[in-house]
Amino acid sequence: MRCPWCARSGDKVVDSRSAEGGKAVRRRRECLSCGRRFTTYERAEETNLLVAKRDGSKEPFDRAKVVAGVNKAVKNRPVTEDQVEQLAVKAEEKLRRKGPVITTQEIGIEVLSQLRRLDDVAYLRFASVYKDFQELTDFERELGLLLQKRVARKAPPRRSPSRA
Ligand SMILES: [Zn+2]
User: What is the DSSP letter of 164?
Assistant: First the structure.
């Protein structure tokens, strides 16, 4: 972003907040050359994936929030930053196919199904956090199905009873 004061590029974001009722992100930037500040707005046009919240409002999907949530779940686990970023990118790709409006539950389910492949402990941590916050919803039904699959996968292969 070119500085509107001195026309040089290179700046750092000094403040970032939701604006226009969640439709935009307002960023205060500081020019690295002249030190003066200016404001940019990032709107959902570029990323028209919207998240419907429980109060009925909508906000642009923010991959950084997914990354932050997953980072909490993978704390002290053998999972790299790159893996978390890739997980978030994959989850976003899948969620975009369900767009333009998705629910927080759908995000949770998608993140869970990605985490399941990555790390068992992180998966369960993320699942338990979600369970705490959700009412009994489709999400829990989906979660139940995911957990059942896990159990099924871990069960030893069934042996046919030997016939004498
Ligand atoms: Zn400048």
Answer: -
Q: How much is the pTM?
A: 0.54
Distance (Å, rounded) from C-alpha 108 to C-alpha 133? 11
Distance between CA atoms of residues 96 and 50, nearest Å: 9
The Cα 33–Cα 42 span in angstroms is: 23
pLDDT at 161: 58
User: Which of 144, 52, 147 has the alpha carbon at shortest distance from 107?
Assistant: 52
Report the length, in residues, of the chain: 164
Cα–Cα distance, 63 to 82 (Å, whole number): 14
Q: How far is the CA of 12 from the centre of ligand 1 (A)?
A: 11
Neighbours of ion ligand 1 (CB under 5 A): 3, 5-6, 31, 33-34
- Asked if 11 and 31 count as a contact pair (C-beta separation under 8 A), the reply is yes
The yes-or-no verdict on residue 136 having pLDDT over 50 is no
Distance of CA 29 from the midpoint of ligand 1 (Å): 10
Summarize pLDDT for 58-105 with one digit per residue, the tens.
988 988 889 988 998 899 999 999 899 899 989 998 998 898 899 888
- Ligand 1 centroid–CA 40 distance in Å is 14
